[in-house]
């Protein structure tokens, strides 16, 4: 069995973001980067499956981006992936989800992966498109937002999270792609000995130009902080009126009374 | 010259920060209040590899460099100085000398249990009448056939309460002073070893500080570390490296307090503005940051010198002195920035203030560090 995990490196979400000079994405100077949270669930699930199958599957981890993404790849290797692929692209932030998925698909086509794990979405762009688009290009089944995963005899059973706290069980045959949601598992900490062992694992670098021949289908026209909100709503009048107003607001704008 | 951490160091930091945030920080206050680090946390730290960061993988260690070990102690100490010193004393003061001076057999016999946390290490040098003047220890040993028999008392032993593995220093003849001292690897659960008490302390209250009585403790001859009479040199060499670990602990305490003070100064409003808009607070933040950064650079350089096999005696004394004084200064100012809240236990900077003080004292008081530094400066005088 061969497994692919697609990961993205994203900034620490507590950072203060400033637009870049072109005004189409954030400036990455002075930002600290880490593995996208949802991709950590993907890595963990792939490694758990490898362990379940006695270490037989080969787990390949892939990331598209500039050379700093090697840090995230190394983390995935330290968590238990076998080898890594960096699709080297200093301008990955200017590619749209279609292009990213196309580049990954160009690599994955020749490798015949049985299972592909991705995060539900990236924490920075949040399009949630790359996983499903990749599955579509490869012509394989896909299921999104999984919070439970089981594998037996070539068949995958997942639990999906639906709106309103509902769940669904979905079965699918491999080859398949799943996108992973918070709650699927608790990602392990890479142990210090495994960080060292990861140094000996292969990291293949493929220039994006060798894989990507597709034009973008969408572009980010501008990137900006929304105008600062004014100082909230101040309720006035006597207490009974204020209570009614508050109830209306809670009913309309929040879920607390539903 | 390159001040950038390597990608592997950054990955280590990332792991440490996540681990500390989830496993250590939430219970740091409880560790202080209950005077104990939960065994479950010690086990988690061992599983992650924090108890054997720079030990070779042949013994179950991670095989990382010395700077990695420093980063481990620093990051853990940001949240909990007690846990930081557990790692530091265990690694620098017990695993360290076995690795540096032990035979292959001794390393194979002791290090795997230490690295895996099955046994927690400590260093038994200090006695009631022998602190800075370590050459004057009275604990004695004599040879009887295939054994050494050790008798005496030891105090202020970090990690002693675990009764794990100890490097015990004893003398064959007190009149020989430091030349009569030898070092032994001792199982502290052995007959004749008694824990007299675990001390009540001002800070690092989750860390054991133990007084031992050693009464005719019989140790196999194979447990002699180095040669007879070499003990004082082993002790001094070990403390030389250990000081960098204490500098890392102090640095972590200072950084932990600084992060909280910086955050609080932006949130706390008085006279309608965040208090960080006041120059009085701004200057404090600048001074705190300056001390931390200076201490960090010297600490990392000392680690680099040790790793490179260069002489690091001066730098280890320097970094221990600078970082510990940064820690007491920064934690004090952190309380001041918090005002009355800083004096309340909920805000945790008061614990950091209490934890910081010991770093100016143990593994060589800062007065001893100044002796070391000035002696080296005046070596040709």
UniProtKB/TrEMBL annotation, chain A:
Keyword Electron transport annotated: yes
Residues covered by the Electron transfer flavoprotein alpha/beta-subunit N-terminal domain: 23-215
A molecular function GO annotation: electron transfer activity
Pfam families: ETF
Alphabetical list of SUPFAM superfamilies matching this protein: Adenine nucleotide alpha hydrolases-like (SSF52402)
Keywords (A to Z) from UniProt: Electron transport, Transport
CDD domains membership: ETF_beta
Keyword Oxidoreductase (UniProt): no
Family: Belongs to the ETF beta-subunit/FixA family.
Protein name: Electron transfer flavoprotein subunit beta
Origin species: Geomonas limicola
High-level lineage: Bacteria, Pseudomonadati, Thermodesulfobacteriota, Desulfuromonadia, Geobacterales
UniProtKB/TrEMBL annotation, chain B:
SUPFAM superfamilies: Acyl-CoA dehydrogenase C-terminal domain-like (SSF47203), Acyl-CoA dehydrogenase NM domain-like (SSF56645)
EC number: 1.3.8.10
Ranges for domain Acyl-CoA dehydrogenase/oxidase C-terminal: 229-376
Acyl-CoA oxidase/dehydrogenase middle domain mapped to chain residues: 122-217
Keyword Oxidoreductase: yes
Cofactor(s) essential for the protein: FAD
Record domain Acyl-CoA dehydrogenase/oxidase N-terminal: where: 6-117
UniProt entry keywords in alphabetical sequence: FAD, Flavoprotein, Oxidoreductase
GO molecular function: acyl-CoA dehydrogenase activity; flavin adenine dinucleotide binding
Family: Belongs to the acyl-CoA dehydrogenase family.
Assembly and binders: Homotetramer.
Protein name per the record: Cyclohex-1-ene-1-carbonyl-CoA dehydrogenase
UniProt lineage: Bacteria, Pseudomonadati, Thermodesulfobacteriota, Desulfuromonadia, Geobacterales
Gene behind this protein: bcd_2
């Amino acid at each position: 069995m061969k497994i692919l995990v697609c990961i993205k490196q994203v900034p620490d979400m507590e950072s203060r973001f400033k637009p870049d000079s072109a005004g189409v994405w954030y400036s990455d100077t002075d930002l600290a980067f880490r593995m996208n949270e949802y991709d950590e669930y993907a890595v963990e699930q792939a490694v758990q499956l490898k362990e379940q199958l006695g270490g037989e599957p080969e787990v390949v981890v892939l990331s598209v981006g500039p050379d700093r993404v090697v840090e995230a790849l190394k983390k995935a290797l330290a968590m238990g992936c076998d080898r890594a692929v960096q699709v080297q692209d200093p301008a990955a932030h200017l590619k749209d989800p279609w292009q990213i998925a196309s580049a990954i698909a160009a690599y994955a086509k020749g490798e015949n992966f049985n299972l592909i794990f991705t995060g539900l979405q990236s924490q920075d762009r949040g399009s949630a498109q790359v996983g499903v688009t990749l599955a579509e290009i490869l012509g394989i089944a896909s299921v999104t937002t999984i919070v439970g995963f089981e594998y037996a005899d070539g068949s995958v059973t997942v639990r999906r999270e639906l709106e309103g706290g509902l769940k669904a069980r979905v079965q699918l045959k491999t080859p398949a792609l799943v996108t992973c949601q918070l709650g699927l598992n608790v990602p392990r900490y890479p142990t210090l000995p495994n960080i060292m062992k990861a140094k000996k694992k292969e990291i293949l670098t493929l220039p994006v130009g060798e894989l990507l021949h597709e034009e973008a289908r969408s572009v980010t026209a501008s990137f900006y902080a929304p105008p600062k909100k004014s100082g909230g709503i101040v309720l006035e009048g006597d207490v009974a009126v204020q209570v009614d107003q508050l109830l209306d607001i809670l009913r309309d704008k929040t879920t607390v009374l539903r | 010259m390159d001040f950038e951490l390597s990608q592997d160091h950054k990955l280590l930091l990332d792991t440490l920060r996540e681990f500390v945030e989830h496993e250590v920080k939430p219970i740091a206050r409880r560790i202080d209040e209950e005077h104990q680090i939960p065994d479950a946390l010690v086990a988690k730290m061992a599983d992650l590899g924090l108890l054997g960061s720079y030990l070779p993988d042949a013994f179950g260690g991670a095989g990382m460099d010395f700077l990695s070990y420093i980063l481990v102690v620093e990051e853990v100490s940001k949240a909990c100085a007690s846990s930081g010193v557990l790692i530091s004393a265990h690694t620098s003061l017990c695993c360290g000398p076995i690795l540096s001076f032990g035979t292959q057999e001794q390393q194979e016999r002791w290090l795997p249990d230490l690295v895996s946390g099955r046994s927690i290490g400590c260093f038994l040098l200090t006695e009631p009448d022998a602190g800075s003047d370590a050459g004057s220890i009275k604990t004695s040993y004599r040879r009887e056939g295939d054994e050494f028999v050790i008798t005496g008392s030891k105090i202020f032993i970090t990690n002693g309460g675990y009764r794990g593995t100890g490097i015990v220093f004893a003398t064959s003849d007190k009149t020989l002073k430091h030349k009569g001292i030898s070092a032994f690897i001792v199982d502290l659960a052995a007959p004749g070893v008694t824990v007299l008490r675990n001390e009540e302390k001002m800070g690092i209250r989750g860390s054991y500080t133990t007084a031992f009585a050693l009464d005719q403790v019989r140790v196999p001859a194979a447990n002699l570390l180095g040669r007879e009479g070499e003990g004082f040199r082993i002790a001094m060499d070990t403390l030389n490296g250990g000081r960098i670990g204490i500098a890392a602990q102090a640095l972590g305490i200072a950084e932990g307090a600084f992060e909280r003070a910086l955050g609080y100064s932006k949130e706390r409003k008085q006279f309608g503005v965040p208090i960080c808009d006041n120059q009085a607070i701004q200057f404090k933040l600048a001074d705190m940051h300056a001390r931390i950064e200076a201490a960090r650079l010297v600490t990392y350089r000392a680690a680099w010198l040790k790793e490179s096999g260069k002489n690091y005696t001066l730098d280890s004394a320097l970094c221990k002195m600078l970082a510990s004084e940064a820690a007491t200064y920064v934690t004090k100012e952190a309380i001041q920035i918090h005002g009355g809240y800083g004096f309340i236990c909920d805000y945790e900077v008061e614990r950091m203030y209490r934890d910081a003080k010991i770093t100016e004292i143990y593994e060589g008081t800062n007065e001893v560090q100044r002796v070391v530094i000035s002696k080296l400066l005046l070596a040709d005088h």
